[in-house]
Amino acid sequence: MNRRHLLSALGAAGLGAGLIGRARAQHEMHDMPGMSMPPAATPEPSPAPALGGARYRPVHTPNGWTLPFRINDGVKEFHLVAEEIEHEFAPGCVARCWGYNGGTPGPTIEAVEGDRVRIYVTNHLPEATSVHWHGILLPSGMDGVSGLNQPGIAPGETYVYEFTLRQHGTQLYHPHADEMTQMALGMMGLFVIHPRDGEAVPVDRDYAILLHNWALHPGTSRPDPSIMSDFDLWTFNSKVYPATAPLLARSGERVRIRLGNLSMWNHPIHLHGHRFLVTGSDGGRWPHALWRPEVTEIVGVGQTRDIEFVAAAGDWAFHCHMSHHTMNAMGHGIANPLGVDTRGVADDVRQLLPGYMAMGGNGMSEHSAHLAMGMMAGPGNTLPMMTGQGPHGAIEMGGMFTVLKVRDELPGDGRDPGWYRPPGRELARRVSNDPGFGTPLRRPKA
Ligand SMILES: [Cu+2]
What's the rounded mean pLDDT across residues 323-342? Predict the structure, then answer.
């Protein structure tokens, strides 16, 4: 039996193996005060500005930004640059990606129904690109499908797109030239169009999150465009938890979260503690009669969905409900170690593989415990399968996960308010450590 077979027979050092984060980096992460908190907090929403006569509440793109524009003769002018960038998914994992204007996702483009927009696109990539304005009603020649609607924008060239916005809603933009590669490397962005006449039910906070997946194999630094389904990283605005910024709100505020999906999977996005309304999509804000209450909404590939809710005090998980999408890199094709006592063979394996740890026999939770203790090593430039520390211990999440933090009052400067303190006895608590506690009923044996 060769080493490879032996490993796979043993469950390959637990499901996290081969992808176990760099122990030292993780160790430091856990040791640094505040590192379990995402670095980028959410600033206060600024008052609705007057632009071209129309007033709107600006969208906030967590971990991202909004592209500034200038007004030239009544036309809003934007400039996108397609280019290679260095992108950090979370501390300890950096990749050479492709994006726009220095980042992935590209900056959010924001405008108002009725605006005439002119968008310059400069190509700094090594191959031709184009931009498709996904969901936007426009003349065919502006639709951005290279070969069909226009020639590809060659490296070094700048093209200009110009059209009038005839709708509102949460739209997207992405290349339509070597689309598989360029999107796999991170080229995509949100395009939010506000209604011209404002909204009958205005929101106090407006967040925008783009969902994506990445095949960044452990130990490598370039996303692999050939992968169809077995991705390593699942992201909110190109970040994985714990680097995903928390979403902040005050109790009682009306919050909208716009979700766009340009990944290769559908994502059932779930919010704890609230019943939200699905109120819109690429088709704009729906008529009131179509709003429907949900706690989980599937955002299909190429779709957008807007959800709205009245914020209730607490720390509330907000995540994709595909449980592998709230994990980071892991091996998927290995033997199942669950229930297997591997203690006896771990010493033998260590002679072949120094540092080997038998894991997963009692579940995967010990993965995060070992990480916290700095006991695990693995390939460089990857992240632990599950991570994150909360006020009560390991959160054991990654990928498409963040925390909605609702407080009666928030720090004025947009700082993270820290962890929620439940009032009185509103906290689950231990009442016994006797395994024989109580008289639970069990389903009768047949
Ligand atoms: Cu998902």
Answer: 82
d(CA 319, ligand 1 centre) in Å? 8
CA of 100 to the centre of ligand 1 (A): 24
Instruction: Return the pLDDT at 262.
Output: 98
Tens of pLDDT, residue by residue over 336-380, are 778 888 777 778 878 887 777 667 777 777 766 666 666 565 678
Residues lining ligand 1 (ion), CB within 5 A? 267, 320, 322, 325
pLDDT at 49: 46
Ligand 1 centroid vs 303 CA: distance in angstroms?
A: 13
d(Cα 446, Cα 444) in Å, to the nearest integer? Answer: 6
Name the residue ranges covered by the structural domains of the chain. Answer: 69-194
Per residue in 259-310, pLDDT tens?
A: 999 999 999 999 999 999 999 998 888 999 999 999 999 999 999 999 999 9
Distance 399 CA to ligand 1 centre (A): 9
Task: Name the pTM for this structure.
Answer: 0.85
Distance 326 CA to ligand 1 centre (A): 7
Residue written as token pair 């038998």 = 358
The CA 286 to ligand 1 mean position distance, Å, reads 24
Residue with tokens 């002018």: 77
308 CB neighbour count, 10 Å cutoff = 20
CA quadruple 405, 407, 411, 414: dihedral sign: positive
Whether residue 171 is predicted with pLDDT greater than 50 in this model: the reply is yes
Q: How far is the CA of 150 from the centre of ligand 1 (A)?
A: 34
Helix, strand, coil % over all residues of the chain, rounded to 5: 10, 35, 55
Contact 263, 214 (CB under 8 A): no
Residues 410, 193: Cα–Cα separation, whole Å: 28
Q: How far is the CA of 43 from the centre of ligand 1 (A)?
A: 27
Which CATH number is associated with domain 69-194?
A: 2.60.40.420
CA of 442 to the centre of ligand 1 (A): 34
> What are 274's two structure tokens?
């609230």
Cα(69) to ligand 1 centroid in Å equals 33
Q: Which residue type, as a one-letter code, is found at position 210?
A: L
Whether pLDDT at 23 is above 60: no
- Cα–ligand 1 centroid distance for 338 (angstroms): 24
Distance of alpha carbon 126 from alpha carbon 288, whole angstroms: 47
